């Protein structure tokens, strides 16, 4: 829950003019206590600073302009009790401050996640009317550990937007956020709960450029040993002499090797601090090798994450060490460097190994088989894998191979295998036409004990061979939406979940006719509406997997995307989606980029649901 002091402060849509220190006519305003400074937008603007208990407020405005004309900006710096997330704070600003002040005129234009001065930030863009004055506003809500910094810009409609934007951009570019004495006194290591929730590291300057992993599986002891070399890039503003590495708590860390020495006994709740041999300057690179294992703990893994058995093993979640948070401050996917993966598996000689990408090497010696898979020209989000005594049946048509991997206990008939291969091929060909062909010559569909099929780059881990065609279509679509094209910021989970479901509907419609498409859309809409208010009305950008109503990411997410297609028209929508997939291949996409590409008609339909 938000602390009362925070609610009282952030509920103010525009802070009252402070009266305790008067005006400051200077090019830059600095607050040494909080370690924050900002330049003024133009030479004739003044600062009006003030301090309250645990809060600093600075308004900046033209010298002779009354605040009632709504031409001004402000920065609020506040410390707060409790453990509120940045997403909660942004919601608080929208609901308590802006929506209550603007009333029926309130319109949220966009909500994005980014970083300012190295800190997680949510940017809000909105419009409305205050005191009869129509205006637009931008607000940046910044988390600095246990403090919040809110930077606000106002644009009255009576003044040319572009001319004010030049000055506000000067403020934004000149914003400096240091550690702050108040922050330094309270700074501490992130909690294990926070790490487990985000599967990553908050506030890390490091980015993983590539992973080279060796996985050796002992089927007798049900144990996997991992040796993972990570190439790191310092993406921070200062040099760094250490790196934090996080492992999912089920794994046991053995040691970490740098160029200087091998370090062990470093792990605490999955987090390890690694001393580097030399300082690494900004944009400099280094490498570490992490050794760890998964043994008896694997038996207790949730079935949706993985399984170890004498006849095979699979891991369907992010099992590699992390040096950067996977999620941003709002619980959405964070933009990080798209790493390359090279995965080598050491298994019994009668076994096979499969992973995203393409197989680049295979050798059998002394009763063991070594198989290497690599992602090269196409990016993978999560390098899931499966190992076992598989029978591999391949169907190849028109240059595309579909390999169906059958576990020893599978009794699928030739007709079933052919049906699975045919559905996978149809889905791949549809996606290739709709989103651009990926440089992958073979799609792998693998039988596992997963409760539900999971799609990766050119790879589907099935829950057996009875997976429906719709599910195969959906999971193969993740080779594009979630892998080749990765979404970040608010709405990232909508792209990852809703786009593949919509793709399955569109593919069925293309293959079987528009009547089938309309029926599938009605079914998705019915599942969405069945959630009931207020859940069914929740914005798609606020939903995350695992939360109550996360199924809305699929049902509502696909339904509103279909509504946008109808608004834009089939040809325009198809061209926009193809352009998005090609333009952002092996990169990141945001909801704003999607809205811009789809055009005004489709965007007008989508915005109320986002």
Strand order of the largest sheet: 15-14-17-12-11-20-23-22
Shape: globular
Q: Please identify the structural class as seen in this structure.
A: alpha+beta
**CATH-derived topology of the largest domain:** Immunoglobulin-like
Q: DSSP strand (E) fraction?
A: 25-35%
Strand segment count? 31
Number of helices: 12
Rg of Cα set: 26 Å
CATH superfamily label of the largest domain: tricorn interacting facor f3 domain
Indicate how many domains the architecture comprises.
3
Average pLDDT number: 84
The CATH first-level class of the largest domain comes to Mainly Beta
Q: Architecture of the largest domain in CATH?
A: Sandwich
Q: How far is the first residue's CA from the last residue's CA?
A: 24 Å
Q: Considering DSSP H and I runs of 4 or more, what fraction of the residues is helical?
A: 25-40%
> Strand count, sense and closure of the main sheet?
8 strands, mixed
Molecular structure report:
- The protein has 610 residues and is α+β, with helices and mostly antiparallel strands.
- The protein has three domains: 4-186, Protein Transport Mog1p, Chain A, CATH 3.40.1000.10; 202-386, Sandwich (Immunoglobulin-like); 485-609, Neutral Protease, domain 2, CATH 1.10.390.
- The chain is 27% helix and 34% strand.
- The protein contains twelve helices and 31 strands.
- An eight-stranded mixed β-sheet has the order 15-14-17-12-11-20-23-22, with no helix packed on it. A seven-stranded antiparallel β-sheet has the order 3-4-5-9-8-7-6, with helices on both faces. A five-stranded mixed β-sheet has the order 25-26-27-29-28, covered by helices on one side.
- The longest helix is centred in the C-terminal third of the chain and has 22 residues, at 414-435.
- The radius of gyration is 26 Å and the shape is globular.
């Amino acid at each position: 829950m938000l602390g009362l002091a925070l609610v009282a402060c952030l509920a103010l849509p525009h802070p009252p003019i402070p009266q305790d220190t008067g005006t400051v006519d200077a090019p830059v305003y600095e607050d040494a206590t909080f370690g924050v400074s900002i330049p003024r937008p133009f030479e004739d603007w003044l600062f009006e600073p003030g301090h309250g208990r645990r809060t600093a407020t600075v308004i900046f405005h033209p010298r002779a302009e009354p605040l009632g004309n709504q031409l001004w900006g402000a920065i609020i710096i506040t410390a707060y009790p409790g453990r509120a997330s940045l997403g909660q704070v942004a919601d608080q600003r929208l609901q308590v401050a802006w929506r209550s002040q603007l009333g029926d005129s309130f319109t949220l234009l966009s909500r994005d996640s980014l970083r300012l001065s190295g800190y997680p930030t949510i940017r809000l863009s909105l419009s409305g009317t205050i005191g009869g004055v129509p205006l637009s506003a931008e607000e940046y809500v910044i988390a600095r550990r246990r403090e919040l910094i809110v930077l606000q810009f106002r644009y009255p409609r009576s003044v040319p937007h572009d001319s004010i934007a030049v000055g506000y951009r000067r403020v934004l570019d000149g914003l400096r956020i240091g550690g702050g004495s108040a922050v330094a006194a309270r700074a501490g290591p992130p909690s294990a709960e926070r790490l487990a929730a985000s599967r990553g590291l908050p506030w890390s300057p490091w980015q993983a450029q590539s992973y080279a992993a060796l996985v050796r599986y002992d089927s007798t002891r049900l144990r996997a040993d991992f040796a993972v070399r990570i190439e790191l890039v310092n993406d921070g503003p200062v040099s760094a002499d250490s790196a934090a590495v996080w492992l999912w708590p089920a794994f046991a860390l053995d040691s970490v090797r740098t160029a200087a020495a091998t370090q062990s006994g470093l792990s605490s709740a999955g987090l390890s601090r690694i001393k580097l041999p030399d300082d690494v300057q900004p944009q400099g690179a280094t490498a570490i090798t992490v050794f760890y294992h998964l043994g008896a703990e694997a038996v207790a893994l949730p079935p949706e994450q993985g399984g170890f058995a004498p006849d095979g093993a699979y891991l369907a979640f992010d099992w590699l060490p992390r040096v950067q948070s996977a999620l941003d401050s709002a619980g959405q996917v964070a933009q990080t460097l798209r790493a390359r993966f090279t995965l080598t598996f050491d298994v019994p000689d009668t076994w096979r190994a499969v992973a995203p990408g393409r197989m680049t090497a295979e050798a059998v010696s002394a009763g063991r088989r070594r198989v290497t898979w690599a992602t090269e020209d196409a990016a993978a989000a999560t390098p899931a894998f499966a190992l076992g005594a598989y029978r591999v049946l391949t169907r190849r048509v028109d240059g595309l191979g579909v390999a169906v991997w059958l576990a020893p206990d599978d009794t699928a008939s030739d007709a079933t295998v052919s049906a699975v291969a045919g559905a996978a091929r149809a889905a791949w060909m549809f996606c290739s036409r709709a989103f651009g062909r990926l440089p992958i010559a073979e799609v792998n569909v693998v039988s596992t004990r997963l409760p539900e099929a999971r799609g990766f780059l050119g790879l589907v881990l099935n829950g057996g061979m009875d997976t429906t065609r719709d599910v195969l279509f959906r999971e193969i679509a993740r080779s594009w939406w979630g892998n080749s094209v990765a979404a970040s910021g608010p709405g990232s989970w909508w792209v990852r979940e809703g786009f593949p479901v919509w793709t399955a509907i569109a593919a069925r419609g293309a293959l079987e006719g528009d009547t089938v498409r309309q029926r599938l859309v009605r079914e998705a809409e019915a599942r969405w509406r069945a959630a009931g208010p207020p859940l069914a009305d929740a914005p798609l950008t606020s939903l995350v997997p695992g939360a109550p109503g996360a199924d809305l990411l699929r049902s509502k997410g696909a339904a509103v995307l279909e509504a946008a297609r109808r608004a834009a028209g089939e040809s325009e929508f198809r061209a926009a989606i193809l352009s998005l997939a090609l333009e952002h291949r092996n990169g990141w996409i945001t909801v704003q980029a999607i809205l811009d590409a789809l055009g005004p008609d489709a965007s007008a339909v989508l915005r109320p649901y986002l």
